[in-house]
Specification:
Elements (H helix, E strand, L loop, with lengths): L23 H26 L8 H20 L3 H6 L1 E4 L8 H15 L2 H13 L6 H6 L2 E4 L4
Amino acid sequence: MLSTTHDLNGLPDPAIDRQFYQGVPFKRLIAWFIDFIIIILIAAALVLVSFGAGAFIFPMLLFFTNIAYRIFTLSRNSATLGMIVTGVEIRNRFGNKLNLTEAAWHTGLYTGLSLLFFTLVISMVMMLVNARGQGLHDYFLGTTAINRPKP
């Protein structure tokens, strides 16, 4: 699963099918903000449901809410709710939507790399300079974000 040499022939070719990659890094940024707000709201609701006890472990609650939210949404739609709003979805190296295992790997690697500031910056720069707009986690998994194809 983790590798730096993936055959990405199953994905749209950025030289031929540019429409799949146009504006995706910016859309991913907007999606991240939307997802961030949703995750905070879910964690806040959990604090209310726990009669305030969750407030004492709010950072941990946010961390696990983030992981559960991303795995759940990526495994169902190959996109988080923010990605759905912005019209982006994640595809594996074969061009297919993510399954549960791939969603868990994507979420785990994304979360792990996001914990370190320099790997987060490297990932953001990679999204801007890579022809497929892959972040560091996408590069290692052979995934990429594309504009959702029209049905």
